[in-house]
Specification:
single chain; about 280 residues; alpha/beta; Metallo-beta-lactamase, Chain A; six-stranded mixed β-sheet; 6 helices; about 20% helix; globular
């Protein structure tokens, strides 16, 4: 299995000369299950690039969404495979069954030229996440996050490694509180890879309390407490330049080293690939 990052930004896509290194597309990560099946974590604008590189043969895409805010779903209308009759789209919405309708409603003939009924691919809302992905050797569990509206983080376990995907989460939230720091650390405990929202710096965080995102230092604290093997910072602020993210990468590594954590830390970028 291979993890590929297609989009790593938060809030809104931010193309331009200052974001070419890390990329400007919003969240989308794919995990290749085999030659005919792909798991897709969120469907931000990065999904467009995944669709452009997709083969024109039979394939099944399993969409596992963190939530349905625009920046996490608005790549789907331009996802080329949905116009292929050999493609199956499975929307894994057990966490919140209403998400399927909200996800597909983007294709309404008004905001997008075609309706979801006109898609050529077959579409199914599959509520049984564990059963569906279990046949690929994946054990999926989830936790509700601190963000306005239903939002979930996922632990995806294989026989050899565990991946945590958490985006749009405010670690020290004062409102929309669903999960404590201790509960989340337990959920992430011992994971090989933690992909986590790290949208704000410590200087920015006081003016963004309640916005539903985390500071970089508190994400590092979580990784250290949970004893994860590798931390990947993601959901970068749309105004964050490549130079700023370079500095964040250095600062986060220094912070973890100073805390004594044995955790590798990197800033996620578009095109990044990892084995699972």
């Amino acid at each position: 299995m291979n993890i590929h990052f297609w989009g790593v930004r938060g809030s809104i896509a931010s193309p331009g000369s200052s974001t070419t290194k890390y990329g400007g597309n919003t969240m989308c990560i794919s995990i290749s299950l085999d030659n005919e099946n792909t798991l897709v974590l969120d469907a931000g604008t990065g999904l467009y690039r995944l669709g452009q590189q997709a083969r024109n043969d039979s394939h099944t895409y399993y969409f596992l969404l963190s939530h349905v805010h625009w920046d996490h779903i608005n790549g789907f209308p331009m996802f080329r495979p949905h116009m292929n009759s050999d493609v199956s789209i499975q929307i894994l919405s057990e966490m919140n069954p209403e998400w399927t309708e909200l996800f597909l409603s983007q294709l309404d003939g008004v905001h997008f030229p075609i309706t979801h009924e006109e898609m050529c691919a077959s579409v199914q809302a599959n509520l049984d996440v564990k059963g569906t992905l279990g046949r690929f050797g994946l054990d999926v569990s989830w936790i509700k996050l601190n963000h306005r509206g239903p939002c979930f983080g996922y632990r995806i376990a294989t026989d050899s490694a565990d991946l945590i995907y958490i985006t749009d989460h405010e670690i020290d939230a004062l409102q929309n509180v669903n999960t404590s720091f201790e509960e989340l650390a337990s959920f992430c405990s011992g994971a090989d890879i933690l992909i986590h929202d790290a949208q704000y710096t410590d200087d920015e965080m006081p003016s963004r309390v309640g916005w539903g995102h985390s500071s970089i230092s508190r994400v590092c604290d979580l990784a250290a407490e949970a004893g994860v093997g590798r931390l990947l910072l993601c959901h970068h602020d749309p105004l964050r330049s490549d130079d700023a993210l370079d500095r964040i990468a250095l600062d986060a590594k220094s912070y973890l080293e100073a805390s004594g954590a044995e955790c590798r830390c990197d800033v996620a970028f578009e095109g990044m690939e990892l084995p699972l």
